[in-house]
Amino acid sequence: MKKPLQPDFKKLTFLLLLSALSVGILTGAVYGTGHEVKSVWVHQYFLPEYSGDTIYEVFRNTFMSLFLFIFAEFIMGLSALGQPVGVLMLIYRGFGIGASVSSIYMTKSLHAVPEILILVLPECLAVSGITILSVREQMRLSRGVFMAVIAEKTHTDKEFRLYCLEFLVLTAVSFLVAVLTTLMNYIFSGLR
Predict the structure, then answer these.
(1) Exposure letters 81-94 (e unless 16+ CB within 10 A, then b)
(2) What predicted TM-score, i.e. pTM, was given to this entire model?
(3) Quick one: CA dihedral 172, 176, 177, 181, positive or negative?
(4) What is the 3-state secondary structure (H, E, C) of the chain?
């Protein structure tokens, strides 16, 4: 007897989150073609020339941008209504990626390709992965909190400890990404 087809919710959730990030990237790319992208709230330190002038500044700006995003997601996961905010933050992160990349292309045209491939793209891919994972975990706990509020379902301490551990791992990976981004910016500083 065949089992009825059931959707794989993990894959579906990942695709939905990837779609939200893609919407942000496309929106940011359109925005970046017609506007200056000098504000840190727009470029989110994805533009190498605004990442900092020293090794310390590049590391600090990259890590703090990632850490603050992860911390905000962590806090929103503790809220019963954090799910839509997580998706909006994912779109916002994508907006910064799209605006930054299109701004580089608008400024340097085809001369931007090496800078994007070496300095921007690896960081954007890593940040996108971290961002999607943090939003996914935030949405899981937020959904659980929401269900606890409306259905009086209880959570165990184990679930919260696992949630904290997942965000500690994401913070450690963010630290590593910041170190690698700083190293790449130092080695290939001529591309900036």
Answers:
(1) ebbebbbebbbbbb
(2) 0.89
(3) positive
(4) CCCCCCCCHHHHHHHHHHHHHHHHHHHHHHHHHHCCCCCHHHHCCCCHHHCCCCHHHHHHHHHHHHHHHHHHHHHHHCCCCHHHHHHHHHHHHHHHHHHHHHHHHHHHHHHHHHHHHHHHHHHHHHHHHHHHHHHHHHHHHHHHHHHHHHHCCCCCHHHHHHHHHHHHHHHHHHHHHHHHHHHHHHHCHHHC
Q: Which amino acid is at 93?
A: R
- Check the CA dihedral 50-122-97-41 and report its sign: negative
Write out the two tokens for 140: 């899981």
Phi, psi of 39 (to 5 degrees): -75, 135
Amino acid residing at 6: Q
Question: Tens digits of per-residue pLDDT, 117-130?
Answer: 999 999 999 999 99
Segment 90-100, tens digit of pLDDT: 999 999 999 99
Structure tokens belonging to residue 109: 């045209």
The Cβ-side half-sphere exposure at 136, using a 13 Å CA radius, reads: 20
Report the C-alpha gap between 35 and 27 in whole angstroms: 12
